[in-house]
Write a structure and sequence with these properties.
Layout (H helix, E strand, L loop, with lengths): L2 H13 L15 H34 L17 H29 L8 E9 L2 E6 L5 E4 L1 E5 L3 E8 L4 E3 L8 E3 L5 E5 L5 E6 L12 E7 L1 H12 L8 H12 L2 H4 L23 E2 L4 E2 L2 H9 L1 H4 L12 H11 L4
The protein binds dinuclear copper ion.
Length: 332
């Protein structure tokens, strides 16, 4: 990382967590983010050098050409100096051309299409206020809020929205791209090493915008294949008496109107797909850890957990919620 961006990091660390924290765009974890930081770094270098030159010339001029005591006449006037005019036209033009070369080159390199070679396609749909991820190459398996990807592979994301405009942003893996209703935008990302990368909707989309989070779970190819196999053969049959009751409540109280659970007749598409719920780290679009107690709180009163959440408070009885949690905690 160059000096100017390094300075920016130090300044940012004092006031803005996004520069150094788990959503830091200055700590790239894949080729796309690395190329973007490289571009930022070289632009900052050019601007930093211009600043140094301009500041130096200004300081010299202030000292050398200041008014001396007793001086009354005007200093020599230099308007219409062809050499100076040419100099301050050509130098900025060259600098802008230099910036344009890097920008245009990266724009082409990062431009994706759904048919990009040797890549995994994932259709991403933004919803108020959660994310849906669908894998057309893997029997259209669907998950929500936690995007699983294999490391070292290009992941082409087809981005669209079910309602209003959102913006997909996982800073360590790449820059922002809008999700626009009725249109599909494509970007690609790639993770170098396995790990969890944090992201966030970056376009104001309503009350729950700040809580519209996501994670990218970058896995070794073997772990990713295992996840795909689990998703293709979901465990959804309740085993205990309590979970069996939960399974029935899921339809009776209305959960199945909005949610899909793979391997069951429940196929609602308004809310997140819950097929691999037990495998998720967080719930409510990565707002709270996925524990039975939190799941209870969430079902009991979604708006209390996440203001603006579209999931309705169904005013369920305690025994219904307990049974639902018992069932949902079995899904994997
Ligand atoms: Cu979705 Cu902001």
């Amino acid at each position: 990382m160059g000096l100017p961006v390094g300075l920016l990091t130090v300044l940012g660390a004092a006031g803005c967590g996004s520069l150094t924290g788990k959503e830091s765009m200055l700590q790239p974890a894949g080729p796309v983010a690395a190329a973007q930081v490289q571009l930022l770094d070289s632009s900052m270098w050019i601007m930093f050098e211009i600043f140094v030159v301009v500041a130096a010339v200004l300081i010299i001029a202030l000292i050398r050409f200041r008014a001396r005591p007793g001086q009354t006449a005007l200093p020599p006037q230099v308007e219409g100096n062809n050499r100076l005019e040419l100099l301050w036209t050509i130098v900025p033009a060259l600098l802008l051309a230099l910036l344009a070369v890097g920008t245009v080159k990266e724009t082409f390199a990062l431009n994706a299409s759904p048919t990009m070679k040797n890549s995994v396609l994932v259709d991403v749909t933004g919803h108020q206020f959660w994310w849906s991820f669908e894998y057309p190459g893997y029997g259209n398996l669907i998950t929500a809020n936690e995007l699983h990807i294999p490391v070292g592979k290009r992941i082409v994301l087809g981005l669209t929205s079910a309602d209003v405009m959102h913006s997909f942003w996982v800073p360590k893996l790449g820059g922002k791209t809008d999700l626009v209703p009725g249109k599909e935008n494509y970007i690609w990302i790639e993770a170098n090493t396995p790990g969890i990368y944090y992201g966030q909707c970056a376009e104001f989309c309503g009350t729950g915008h700040a809580d519209m989070r996501l994670t990218v779970d970058a896995q070794t190819p073997q772990a990713f294949a295992a996840w795909v196999a689990t998703m293709q053969h979901p465990v959804s049959t309740p085993t205990t008496a309590l979970a069996k009751a939960g399974y029935r409540y899921f339809a009776q109280v209305g959960c199945s109107t909005c949610h899909t659970i793979g391997g069951t007749p429940y196929a609602g598409v308004v809310g997140p797909n819950l097929t691999d719920l037990t495998g998720r780290l967080m719930i409510a679009a990565n707002l709270i850890p996925n524990t039975p107690a939190n799941l209870y709180r969430w079902i009991q009163d979604p708006q209390a957990v996440k203001p603006g959440a579209k999931m309705p408070d169904l005013h369920l009885k305690s025994k219904e919620i307990t049974a639902l949690v018992a069932y949902l905690e079995q899904l994997k």
